Amino acid sequence: MSNISWLPAAVAQASERFLQSLKSLDFTDSHTWLAVTGLTRSGKTVFISSLIHNLLSSFQNPNRMPLLRVAGDGRLIAAKLEGAKAHRLPRFPYRDNIEAMAGTVPDWPHRTQDISEIGIDVHFVPAGALGKLIGQIGGSPAKLSVRIVDYPGEWLLDLPLLSQSYAQWSRSALRLYRRGLRAQAAAPFLAFLGDHPHDGPASEETAKRAHDFYCGFLRQARDQHGLSYLQPGRFLCRGSIGEVPYLWFAPLDCPDHMDEPKPNSLAALMAERYEVYKRELVRRFYEDHFRRYSRQIVLVDVLHALLAGREAFEDSRLALESILQSFRYGSGSILAKLLHGSHIDRVLFAATKADHVPDVQRDHLAELLRHMAAFPAIEVKSSNAKIDVVALASVVSTTEDVQEIDGQTVPVVVGRPVGARKQARFFVGTVPIRPPRSEAWAAPFLNVPPFEPPPIDPSPVDGIPHINLDYALEFLLGDLLR
């Protein structure tokens, strides 16, 4: 408490009342929702685990997060996990994830399969002259409660389905599946369709077999060919819904002139289930969950898409363009009709695993992501949400070195690949800042494997080495921590 005994009695009493009023100011009502998403293997689980661990550690080690201004300015008082409450969603397994990475044999945590949440309370001194004065008086005058939600990015791929009939979706999907890598993976499914026409009799068994063939194709396209634009998204990441019959549908060969299937036909059964899927899963996700989010980060494994080849890279662009529809709120948009005014204020797109390339190439990752889906044009059109792009590594699992290749000294990264006993050097090649032209794919980029996690202290004291995690948090939450 400040010493004011030297002031005249009346002035001292007034000053005392002023100081007491400052102490009684309530800054504790601030709260926000931060949604984290991305396609498979983009690093959502590791991102949230590292974000929480570094926030909990930031008072002990503010140098770990200097670009997060509340920490860099010394205004952070404490960050604490929210206590047990009766929330609607499963709790994000932060402690289990940290224990996995900090174990005797370090391992990466399991990837996201369903929606989950976790809360963290950030106590801080407000910025500016008033904030400093309040900080001198004592106490913890300001608190931001952040509810972090983790959900599969595949679910965002389903938004365009809301504006398509079953026949329209089937035609567009099958045109895509008969080209390139998809045609290889889809061969068994397409053969099944050849024996089961759209106007055949409705059959529960046929519909389920078509669905199983179709899901097998989607998994192979994702896991063996690195493809991303795969619909419906819930067929790959079902979450907790289980095997409900309205999921048992797949696209059929619907002729161009057909919009409504013939009653009691196989296509009519598929179309009925398709509409239930849209109502029960797609609409409900946006109306019950998505409308709550005010801040959003979308993680994109740009490097994996680049290394997987031309078709996988172009497919990632298609997926990204589809995901972007979830952040367009203009008149007549699907979201404007669904959310009735609710929208996200800030969206950050992050090119993850930036530690897999040398420092001189990390800006290239961000620029490549920025140009993958014409972000400059989107930023002009979407005045409702502030958008930014960054290269990010939630956990740094490599170091940098140089190596002589073909008579030239080039920067490389050094790390221990998952399952290997020793560290090795890796050179990815030159990461382009724009999507490569067709002739550029003739000389493939060199592959970089996933690396083992570094040693991590499970106690929230030192934090976890990262790249631009503090920048990401400052963009997403910094204005709420002033």
The amount of beta strand, in percent, is 5-15%
Look at the helices and sheets and give the structural class: alpha/beta
Rg: 26 Å
What is the helix content? 25-40%
Overall 3D shape:
globular
Distance between the termini: 23 Å
How many separate helices? 15
Low-confidence stretches: 1-7
Task: State the major sheet.
Answer: 7 strands, mixed
Give the number of DSSP strands: 10
Query: Average pLDDT across residues?
Result: 87
Query: Largest beta sheet: what is the strand line-up?
Result: 2-3-4-1-5-6-7
Q: What order do the SSEs take from the amino end to the carboxyl end, as H and E?
A: HEHHEHEHEHHHHEHHHEHHEEEEH
Structure description:
- The chain is an alpha/beta fold and 482 residues long.
- 37% of the residues lie in helices and 15% in strands.
- The chain has helices spanning 9-24, 44-57, 69-72, 94-101, 128-137, 166-177, 180-194, 204-223, 266-288, 302-307, 310-324, 334-339, 362-372, 375-381, 469-477, and strands at residues 27-38, 76-81, 116-124, 142-150, 295-300, 346-351, 386-391, 399-405, 408-415, 424-426.
- The protein has a 7-stranded mixed sheet with strand order 2-3-4-1-5-6-7, sandwiched between helices. It has a 3-stranded antiparallel sheet with strand order 8-9-10, with no helix packed on it.
- A hairpin with an 8-residue loop joins strand 9 and strand 10.
- Helix 2 (44-57) packs across helix 4.
- The longest helix has 23 residues, at 266-288.
- It is globular and about 75 Å long.
- It starts with 8 loop residues before the first helix and ends in a 5-residue tail after the last helix.
- Residues 1-7 have low confidence and may be disordered.
